[in-house]
Amino acid sequence: MRILVIHGPNLNMLGSRQVSIYGDKTLEEIDSLLEKAASELGGEIEIYQSNHEGMLVDFIQEKSPGATGIIINPGALTNYGLSLRDALADTALPVIEVHLSNIYAREEFRQQSVIAPIARGQITGLGWRGYIAALEIMAALEA
Questions:
Q1: Which residue in 103, 94, 38, 99 sits closest to 69, CA to CA?
Q2: Which residues sit opposite 96 in a β-bridge?
Q3: Which of 15, 77, 87, 124 could lock onto 57 through a cystine, CB 3.0 to 4.6 A?
Q4: 96: closest CA among 108, 107, 88?
Q5: What are the chain's domains?
């Protein structure tokens, strides 16, 4: 199992950005927890974060040929990242979309995901634990 974990715009600010919504864990802490969980599951992950949609697309195009699945928190690109959506769809890999907050309990504009229709599933509102759940589910899909 080789999973790509992709973090979209502003997720580099976790731990200090709207803690009441996104929690107090930094992105580095979440990544560390993911690496530990992947190791325990006998797999490997490659983690990438960018604030630029084109950089995320480049990463997906470069790294997806050797991957078995993708976990992505597209951040604000959830609502309008069509080139990101296309890049994910083009991989034909299982994709799990993750959101720290419950996007369906927030502003109306946050409730529409252009990624969801091409994703195998979506985990929303479980904080950093959503990433771990996605990794465990991805591992189970491999079994």
A1: 94
A2: 71, 121
A3: 87
A4: 88
A5: 2-142 (3.40.50.9100)
Query: Which pair of tokens denotes residue 130?
Result: 């959503």
Cβ 115 vs Cβ 74: under 8 Å:
yes
Read off the pLDDT of each residue in 83-96 and give the average, rounded to a whole number: 98
**Annotated catalytic sites, by residue?**
22, 99
The model's pLDDT over 21-47, given as tens digits with 9 standing for 90+, comes to 888 999 999 999 999 999 999 999 999
Structure tokens at 119: 């994703």
Structure tokens, 11: 């997720």
- Name the one residue in this structure whose structure tokens are 């109306």: 108
pLDDT in tens, 46-66: 999 999 999 999 999 999 999
